[in-house]
Amino acid sequence: MAVYWSSTLLVSLMLLWSAYGYLFHKATIDGVRDLGFPDFFRVQLAVLCMIAVVVLLIPQVPVRIKEWAYAGAGLFFITAYIAHVAHKDPFVISAINLIFLGLLVVSNIYLHKISPLGK
């Protein structure tokens, strides 16, 4: 249970930090534009990140709904990784995305250990 909550909280903090940056941090806003993404996409990502956090952190949300949040967050981290590699950003930025993708996988695995699918 501790592994599930630790990994889920770390992923959720990263998603919230990303959402905040997409909405309010000038360097992040400019960085998203530099990566070639349109402005509306930045806002859309922020909202989706916040929704994923709520879904992941509320225990009463059905596992099948949580799976959608895991899929969306996974796509978020994979897309971020690819975008930063293509933009030739420092390796540490890409590595951070892979680390959080790994934590997301750990969270998902432990979710199914503590709450079987379909519950």
Quick rundown:
This protein is an all-alpha fold.
How is this structure best described in words?
This protein is mainly α. α3 (39-57) packs antiparallel against α4. 83% of the residues lie in helices and 0% in strands. The model has no long low-confidence stretch (mean pLDDT 94). The protein has one domain (2-114).
Shape: globular
Helix content: over 70%
Q: Count of DSSP helices?
A: 5
Output the structural class: mainly alpha
Residues in β-strands, percent: under 5%
Mean pLDDT, all residues: 94
Order of helices and strands: HHHHH
The description of the largest β-sheet is:
none
Report Rg: 15 Å
Question: Could you tell me the number of beta strands?
Answer: 0
The parts where pLDDT drops under 50 for at least 5 residues are none
Indicate how many domains the architecture comprises. Answer: 1
For the record, give the distance between the C-alpha atoms at the N and C termini, rounded to a whole number: 17 Å
Task: Identify the notable features of this structure and list them briefly.
single chain; 119 residues; mainly alpha
Helix and strand arrangement:
Layout: H1 2-24, H2 26-34, H3 39-57, H4 63-86, H5 91-114
Helix pairs in contact: 1-2, 1-3, 1-5, 3-4, 4-5
